Amino acid sequence: MKHKGPANPEKAFGVSVGIVLLLIAAALMWSERITAAQILGPVGAVLLVLGLAKPMWLYYPSQAWWRMAMVLGFINARIILSILFFFVLTPLAFIWRLIGKDPLTRRRSAWTGWSPYPERYRDRHHLTRMY
Q1: pLDDT tens digit string along 7-60?
Q2: What's the predicted TM-score (pTM) here?
Q3: Beta carbons of 55 and 2 less than 8 angstroms apart
Q4: What is the C-alpha to C-alpha distance for residues 83 and 96, in angstroms, rounded to an integer?
Q5: What dihedral do alpha carbons 118, 124, 128, 131 form, nearest 10°?
Q6: Contacts 24+ apart (CB under 8 A), 77-82
Q7: What is the DSSP string of the chain?
Q8: Ramachandran angles phi, psi of 49, nearest 5°
Q9: Which long-range contacts (CB under 8 A, 24 or more apart) does 6-12 make?
Q10: Rounded Cα gap, residues 37 and 27, in angstroms
Q11: pLDDT range class, residue 111, cuts 50, 70, 90
Q12: Closest Cα to residue 121, out of 112, 111, 113, 130?
């Protein structure tokens, strides 16, 4: 499935990146890194103004930005999910197996085939207030 993105990607690019660059420039000014702030501030201001006034002028930079974002998203998703799986879920599964925990009651010996009827379902007004 292909990701659709925003309705007006040029405007979204200009406004969002422009605001972020202006905020970074303000933080750099506050931390007395004047040279970097003098570079990022005008770039952010130009992007913000073009994003609001003439978004079509940002067509090519926006296309490059969204392509880079899709590639980074593809790579980061695999890295983050791999780290989560190998360093969180796999050790947790080994620990649960060692202590005999079976949260899904997958073992036949742990499941009786019958679950008790919850007490709250015995009230006939239960379905009138489901949440």
Answers
A1: 788 999 999 999 999 999 999 999 989 999 999 999 999 999 999 999 999 999
A2: 0.57
A3: no
A4: 19
A5: -20
A6: none
A7: ------SSHHHHHHHHHHHHHHHHHHHHHHTT-HHHHHHHHHHHHHHHHHHHH-GGGGHHHHHHHHHHHHHHHHHHHHHHHHHHIIIIIHHHHHHHHHHT--TT--STTT--S--PPPGGGGSTTGGGS--
A8: -65, -45
A9: 8/55, 9/62, 9/63, 9/66, 10/51, 10/55, 10/56, 10/57, 10/58, 10/59, 10/62, 11/51, 11/52, 11/55, 11/58, 12/51, 12/62
A10: 8
A11: low
A12: 130
Decide: residue 76, CB within 10 A, 0-12 exposed, 13-18 middle, 19+ buried: exposed
Task: Name the one residue in this structure whose structure tokens are 């499935």.
Answer: 1
Question: What is the residue whose two structure tokens read 């930079």?
Answer: 61
Amino acid (1-letter code) at residue 1: M
